[in-house]
Structure formats: C-alpha cells, structure tokens
Write a structure and sequence with these properties.
single chain; alpha+beta; Jelly Rolls; Arc Repressor Mutant, subunit A; 4-stranded antiparallel sheet; 3-stranded antiparallel sheet; 9 helices
C-alpha cells in the first residue's frame, strides 16, 4: 500500500507516511457476512483494518446464546488483544455486516510498533475507544430498556455503514442485544409507528436520526465523543 493512497479506515488515515511504510503491504480482501475474524481461545491469525462493514465481538458462557460486547467498523482495528500483548481472546469476532478491509500478520504489526512510538500511540488510542464502547455496552445491557438499547445499536451501526439501510434480521438483532426476539420486534414496530425507522425483509432503514438519538436516552454518544476527541 502506497502511503499516499487514501484509505477509509480511520486508523490508517491517522498514520504518518513513515508509519504506513512500516506496516508494509496490506492485503485487501472481501469480508462477507459471518466471515470469522477470530475464534475464542484460538491464536489470533490476523489483524484487520475494516473499510466497510461491521465486525461483531461476542462472548458467551458454556453453550448459551452469545451476546455482543462490541462492534468495529472503519473507525478501528479488529483483534485488539494482540496490540496489548495477548495472542488470543475468550471472545469471538465475525462480520455481522459484510464489507471490505485489509489484513496483516500480527507479528509484522508488533515489529512496526516496536519501531514507532507514534504508531503505537495511535493504536493504543483505538484500544481505549473500544474499551469505552464496551463499558457503554455493559451499562446499556444492565440499565437500558430494549428500546433504548435498540436505538443505540442502530445509531452505532449507522455510523459504520454508507447509506441509511442496515442489513439485519430481528432474530440477529435479538442475539446481539441479548434479548428475546419478541421484545426486539415490539421495539422495531414502535419505532416504525413513530417514523424513526422503516423495516423491510432482512434490513432496517433509518429515517429520523435525531429522534433515534432521543430514543437512546443518553446511552449512545459517550464512545463516539471519545473517538472524536482523540481522532477528530
């Protein structure tokens, strides 16, 4: 990848030309829905910089239905544990909205980090932002209503895709939010009735962002403000 080649991933665009050179050639690839980016308790094989699409990090106990703990799009890096010295994670990460991105070998990135303090600083900022997002998710899962959690999630997804349409099913949303499907269906129908969204077969279209932010009732925006503070 030439350092002057514009990229849509916010981390890559934050790097200096010299830091981009340290990363070396990045492998561009398509990332279809359900593409596995890492498996729980298995060695991390690649680090990904998404340009489009959304990656979901989930966790579970025993064989229970997993719950989403964080999402990553073009604003971040997938497989953050490797950046802080761990070669694996107890969580799974996969593409929940298909897209494109770049991947590189973890050891190559670790070598580049040893050579550049500025590269390390940018990557550690991305770790911090993700942890703030996870903290916000914990708060929302423990305190927010289903409607508030749904509004937050739809806004987070919209931040990471082009256009107003998000390809998702009610069942998948319920899994990601850790709630029963009927509760998500009721919340979606209420949002439709109020003109906030329009539901279709396998997708949701956002119609009124301002109203969705109000519906999120403060559970959306903390991690997003932190990202803006650090990355502009």
């Amino acid at each position: 990848m030439h350092p002057e080649n514009p990229k849509r991933n916010s981390i890559l665009t934050s790097l200096s030309a010299s830091d981009i050179e340290l990363l070396g050639p990045l492998e561009g690839l398509d990332l279809p829905v359900r593409f596995r980016l890492s498996d729980a308790h298995h060695k991390i094989g690649s680090v990904y910089f998404l340009e489009t699409g959304i990656a979901s990090t989930t966790t579970q106990v025993r064989h229970e239905v997993p719950i989403e703990v964080g999402i990553t799009g073009r604003e971040g890096v997938v497989n953050l544990p490797f950046l802080i010295g761990s070669d694996r994670s107890p969580s799974d990460t996969f593409m929940q909205v298909g897209g494109t991105g770049h991947r590189m070998q973890p050891e190559t990135l670790r070598s580049a980090m040893r050579q550049s303090e500025s590269l390390t600083t940018v990557l550690m900022k991305s770790v911090h932002v993700f942890l703030v997002q996870v903290s916000s998710t914990v708060l929302a899962n423990g305190r927010a209503t289903i409607s508030e959690r749904l509004a937050r999630w739809l806004l987070m997804a919209r931040d990471r895709v082009d256009g107003e349409n998000i390809g998702l099913t009610h069942e998948f949303l319920a899994t990601m939010l850790g709630v029963h499907r009927p509760g998500v269906t009721v919340a979606i129908r209420d949002f439709e009735r109020r003109g906030l969204i329009r539901g279709g077969r396998g997708e949701v279209t956002l119609l009124d962002r301002g109203a969705l932010e109000a519906a999120a009732n403060g559970y959306y925006g903390v991690a997003e403000a932190e990202f803006q503070r650090l990355f502009g």
